[in-house]
Specification:
Elements (H helix, E strand, L loop, with lengths): L9 H23 L5 H8 L3 H29 L2 H19 L4 H29 L2 H33 L3 H21 L13 H13 L2 H31 L4 H25 L5 H26 L3 H13 L1 H15 L3 H23 L8 H17 L7 H4 L13 H12 L6 H24 L10 H9 L7 H14 L1
Helix pairs in contact: 1-5, 1-6, 1-7, 2-3, 3-5, 3-8, 3-14, 4-5, 4-7, 6-10, 9-13, 9-14, 9-15, 10-12, 10-13, 11-12, 11-13, 11-15, 13-14, 17-18, 18-20, 19-20
Length: 499
Amino acid sequence: MRVIQQPLAGRRLVVLTVLLGGFTAFGPLSMDLYLPAFPELAADLGVSQAAVQLTLTADVIGLVVGQLVLGPLSDARGRRWLLIGSTLVCALASVLCALAPSAGWLTVWRFLQGASGGGGIVLARAVAADIASGVAAARLFSLFMTLSSVAPIAAPVLGGVLLAATGSWRPMFWLLAAISLVLAAATWRAIPETLPPERRHAGGLRRTGRAFVDLARDRVFAGYALTVAFAYASLFGYISGSPFALQEVYGLSATHFSLVFALNAAGMIVLGLLNARLVRRYPVRSLLVIGLVASTVAAAILLVVVAGAGLGLLAVLPPLFLVVASRGLVSANATVLGVKRAPAAGAASAVLGACMFGGGILASPLMALGGEGTAVPMAAVVAGGAVAALVATWPPSSSPMATAPNPPSTPTPPCRPSQSRNSQRSRNSQRGNARSGESRRGAVLSAASRTVCVVELRRPWAPPWSGSGEQAGAYAGTELAAGGVEKRADRGLGVLAGS
């Protein structure tokens, strides 16, 4: 058994990162690739729109099941062989989808494809957690998010090109089979076992089940989980309903639909990248609420335009774009707040991931209630999910990240007399030094004294950077004892200057 023996670095780490990013992107790719071919698929198999949308729902259910089962199983059995095996099963399922003689069989094979693809997603994240921690892990997962965000843009465009070139939906699944085989071969060559036997534990499913129950009892975490679920239900209503609504109701071609879909996904990515900068200056929860409010208003406008105003395509596209783009402020922020709220980040990530795809399961049956030949079901599900996500965010959270993602610019409170006297004695003890040394040391001690006071002000809170090794160490180091200012001042200032 190949077990990782030394830290990964350099070119090997880059290859591993890109490969793991490919696994995280495969889920969105397998969902969105055949969207432009929905009308052709329905005509080819002689089924209704609802039956075609059910194949997408089966894939989403599989993604949920695969993550919940294979993730805990890998804690007991290791990562590498499960990752290779699930990828090979995904390749086989993709071949069976390409050969499916009916919508029923296509639905069965799509479930298998989703379950094995979901295993790839959760196992790739588990491997990343094995090889990195703290700031390095955050950067790695950020790169995963970037790579996986390319899939919603590339998938429908690529699907539209394949459909225009071949006139059939089946080559899309042959392509997914080929991608799965490439990923399996690359995993065999490039990914060692990252969880050695001594770090494994039995009873993974049972332990995960207990963690899930504990998280469900946390009202604030449950609110964020429901926000993720309803927000994705709204997005899934758009994903599954827009191929029929925009092509059959509003007359877009498969190529034009692919371009509109790509534009909306690009808006979501751009706003997500902007969100990564905004969280440094504004509370995470405030950004989440802004995204939810914007999405709700845009979805309401969309429903009015589609249901009652009788306006054309040009009136539908702008609110639809805003609904999709606002997810850049919603999904990541709700997930971060939920994970930070939970004591076990792994279980919290699994629950939030399952809730996200579970929202898609909720949306598809609702789409079938409104009948065919109209865009109202799509608009209604999009609007309903947006409103429910906004409602689920209340009551306001007491999490520190929700109110202050960075140390607040609060006026420095007065220090306790004992600390002030000790800081003053420390400064007096340096008066015999050279003037330059005295100036430097005095500045360090003065800043250290201020650091003590700020930390005392924030101490009742759990610090927002408690998951980061460097900053958490700095936080602990700034709890200075009465005589320890001199010994730790330089270290505290060095970390603060680099934060």
